[in-house]
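Risk register update: the risk of archive-format incompatibility is retired. Evidence:
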Amino acid sequence: MVSSERLLAFAAMSFLLIVVPGPSVLFVIGRALAQGRRAALTTVVGNTVGAYVLVVAVALGVGSVVERSVLVFTALKLVGAAYLVYLGVRAWRRRGSFPSAVTTDGSTHGGGLRTLWEGFAVGVANPKTMVFFAAVLPQFVDRAQGHVVVQMLMLGLVFNLIAVACDSVWGLAAATGREWFARSPRRLSLVGGIGGLTMIGLGVTVAATGRKD
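Archived output:
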């Protein structure tokens, strides 16, 4: 299976990628600011599941097609970017309704499955993670040991465990700051709008992200 040296090297590289805020992290922060702790953590779970779908795709050979095809990569990237902009616009338009939805623990009522799905959609369409898995993940597989698919799935699991920890810290930190704003409807409306604008800006950034080939 995967040697400890390869596993540690992959974990270190994964951490460096994850700790730098990308589409998933910024989306979690935007969701935390807009809807609170529970929505942020639910989004983290959705993101993680979406990212692991990418791992499975790479392990089964789909990732190489995405990496080599400019058309497929661009299509997925634009779909993900459009979805982020849509969520940002919706958060901005609903910013005035946040105070009435906040509970005493700073979370929101309902919408758990929808929040989970939205996090999944962002995670599975994240171009940063997509390219990393397609280009880097196969390099840490020891083909001489066999069970290549299992090795990729194991490495992908390591990546996602690190991502859950890091993204949760980002989300909890943003949600903690949000609770201070929750004491004032005007401040909470403001932070909800900032969260929406963050997601819109993120969508535009993702759409503008190109590839050298």
